[in-house]
Specification:
With 342 residues, the chain is of the alpha+beta class. The protein is built from ten helices and 13 strands.
Length: 342
């Protein structure tokens, strides 16, 4: 059977905001009286972030969910199109070559969805197969990559995965809730896409995927649909749970390929926040330089939910050797993928 190889990547980012400016211009007033809020924003590890709806220009905190979903479609279509077109161009493929188009998102929904609208707009074939990966959260890129890789291997046709997240549409009403402060200090908007081809001689082969879910900690991270958009629940105990599982997940992933941690040339770790990266570094015995790219993506782009790990992989494009991509989200769930030179 053919291997599944990532041959192209692309991304699209909305307007860039300065973290300090967003705090001073909006959230300082939003969280007035919440003593820890300024410290949380300053310690989030984010210098710049992206937003289709800047709170400096418009306050969506009182918008209903229906209005937010209408805005999602309006904003997501051009970003998704730009990211997919860039990935196809990098792979040297035309839209008509694609056999499966998968879209992962947890920040907006519509029917017909982004998969149908973008496929038509890009000129993908009418017989295209489609997959929508919805509401999995920050780790969705990796099960999405696993699904398109299985299609590519079984059908010997190219596939595209798009992760499109617009968290800025879900700013919540002001309330003295530190979990909300943390979420608003971290999250950002982005679209990122990858092309996967059968048996390509260039790029990175998807060599393995491992998942681990700890349902006993399901209440530690939540993403609830409310009348006023989607509301994040984010327990400070999340890093402690990850510390219990990340070593076993990576060991299983690498052992299956006959590799050790020392053999890994690049680490694309989802930067859920500074403490998440600290835990991964310490539990795996990595040096700070090995997770520097993830910290850089957090600083320059914020946590863009499912798109973030693909942004880190793009930054590691020139790394020669095995790469491990890892992401974490509700469940609590850990996902890891091993990518080897084709």
């Amino acid at each position: 059977m053919s291997s599944a190889v990532v041959t192209g990547a692309g991304s699209a980012l909305p307007a860039t905001l300065d973290q300090d400016a967003v705090w001073e211009g909006y959230f300082a007033r939003h969280y007035e009286g919440v003593r820890a809020a300024r410290r949380i924003f300053a310690g989030a590890g984010v210098r710049r972030r992206h937003a289709v709806a800047s709170p400096l220009d418009e306050d969506l905190s009182g918008w209903g969910t229906g209005a937010r979903m209408e805005r999602y479609v309006e904003e997501a279509l051009p970003l998704g199109k730009q990211a997919v077109a860039a990935a196809l161009d990098a792979a040297g493929l035309a839209p008509g070559d694609v056999g499966l188009f998968a879209v992962a998102t947890c920040t907006g929904y519509a029917t017909p969805g982004l998969d149908i609208r973008l496929a038509s707009d890009l000129g993908m074939p009418p017989g295209l197969q489609r997959l929508l990966v919805g509401h999995m959260g920050c780790y969705a890129a990796i099960p999405g990559l696993a699904a398109v890789s299985d299609f590519v291997t079984a059908r010997t046709r190219p596939a595209v995965l798009l992760c499109c997240e617009l968290t800025s549409l879900h700013v919540q009403p002001a309330q003295p809730d530190l979990e909300q402060v943390v979420a608003h200090a971290l999250f950002s908007d982005a679209a990122a896409a990858v092309v996967v081809e059968p048996g390509a001689s260039r790029g990175r082969r998807v060599a393995g995927v491992v998942a681990r879910t700890d349902p006993s900690t399901a209440d530690h991270m939540t993403w609830d649909v409310t009348d006023l958009g989607f509301r994040m629940g984010l327990s400070p105990r999340v890093p402690d749970v990850l510390s219990r599982h990340v070593g076993g997940v990576v060991d299983e992933l690498l052992t299956g390929a006959g590799l050790r941690i020392e053999d890994v040339a690049g680490w694309a770790v989802h930067p859920g926040g500074p403490r998440i990266l600290d835990v991964v570094r310490d539990e795996l015995g990595l040096g700070e330089a090995q997770i520097a790219t993830s910290r850089q993506v957090l600083a320059e782009h914020g946590n863009c939910s499912s798109a973030t790990v693909l942004l880190v992989l793009q930054e590691l494009a020139d790394v020669d050797g095995p790469v491990v991509a890892m992401a974490f989200g509700p469940g609590l769930t850990l996902y890891a993928a091993l990518l080897l030179p084709a």
